[in-house]
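Worked Example 4.2. Consider the chain below.
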Amino acid sequence: EELVLSTMKTFGNYSKQLMLLVAIIAYILSVCINHIFGIMCYKILAPANKKAPELNAKIDAIAKSRFLPIIIGLSFIPFFGKFIILLSGFCRINFIQVLIISIFTKLIYYIIVIFFTSII
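Applying the procedure from the previous section yields the following structure tokens:
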């Protein structure tokens, strides 16, 4: 769980909708930052690589993979998901596609965590 969510639960005076809103806004910012870092890594590493045409061909193959939405969908996993977003930036995958898929899956994750863990 996110630090903000845990803190709000600890003090007991919180709204589930507010917690969800804060968590999604924080996640959107982290997706943007990690995607930009991925693009920066590509721009730094690609010119330094002597096999840049081969690298570009492999990256294009990844970007056109039919399993790409599923892989991006796994970005909801804490800690590991940040690397998926970074890799999507490195592979120059459409930012809007990454943002929509990752927010949708993280929203489902947060709904499960916030609304269903309070029942237990």
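The CA atoms of residues 74 and 80 lie 8 Å apart. The mean pLDDT is 78. Compare this with Example 4.1 before moving on.
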